[in-house]
Amino acid sequence: MRIVIFGPPGAGKGTQAKKLSEYFGIPHISTGDILREEMSKGTELGNVVEGYMEKGELVPDHILNAIVRKRLENESSFILDGYPRTIAQADALDEMLSEMGKPLDIVIDLEVDDEEIVRRLSGRRACRKCGTPYHVEFNPPKVPGVCDVCGGELYQREDDTEEAVLNRIAIYKRKTRPLLDYYERKGILRKINGSGTIDEIFSNIIKAIGVEK
Ligand code: AP5
């Protein structure tokens, strides 16, 4: 099973990708998580990408393409979250997967309006250790500030400030949303309403994938 989970910032990609990963027992590959890990380790790559990420700008395509190629080399199944985000990335992904003989099965597009995105991102918290996403109101941890999964500390992302969120939404519309046509033409796009409870949306995604565990 090779899935891309697609949608604007805050659509619930990470939340649903984690559930799909547990359900199907396949890796969740989030380019945002990979980049944040590099930043927190203070690597050379982390230092390069920090300025882009804090402002909500896209990191250059060649960096992402190289990261994803390396990460996918040894995986036959995966859920890709946050990549591709530009036509150049989609072309690169197509090329690498066809070289590897493992084409995508489905692209799930989570559709959420701008007002809801701002509500979700302003209340989002994430675990510093394992990246599990929470929301102070819609999906709170059992103990405030503490991750249910690993006990790690919860924090608010630097790019969840209002200015960065508005920039991310604008960039999504300009550079990323055109990919919907790209995957529609390939016949593998499935649109899912991203409003509703996390469990309702998950169940609709499973129906769209059409494969029960
Ligand atoms: P990335 O980490 O991918 O951020 P994003 O796409 O902006 O998406 P988010 O992680 O903000 O949202 P999400 O859709 O995963 O929502 P979540 O499940 O957390 O990328 C960050 C940055 O990295 C980019 O800006 C860029 O700089 C760089 N980058 C990454 N990939 C790149 C690429 N390919 N090319 C170039 N640059 C790249 O949910 C959000 C909140 O809502 C949470 O609090 C959650 O609990 C809550 N929630 C979820 N579902 C529901 C629901 N149904 N109802 C109520 N609340 C909900």
Commentary on this structure:
This protein has 213 residues and is α/β, with parallel strands linked by helices. It is 49% helix and 15% strand. The protein has helices at residues 13-24, 31-41, 44-55, 61-72, 87-100, 114-122, 162-176, 179-186, 198-209, and strands at residues 2-6, 28-30, 78-81, 106-111, 124-127, 133-135, 154-155, 189-193. It has a five-stranded parallel β-sheet. A hairpin with a 5-residue loop joins β5 (124-127) and β6. α1 (13-24) crosses α9, α4 runs parallel beside α5 (87-100) and α6 (114-122) packs across α7 (162-176). Residues 7, 9-15, 31-32, 35, 52-53, 56-59, 64, 82-83, 85, 89, 120, 123-124, 133-135, 138-139, 159, 168, 196-198, 201 line the site of BIS(adenosine)-5'-pentaphosphate (AP5).
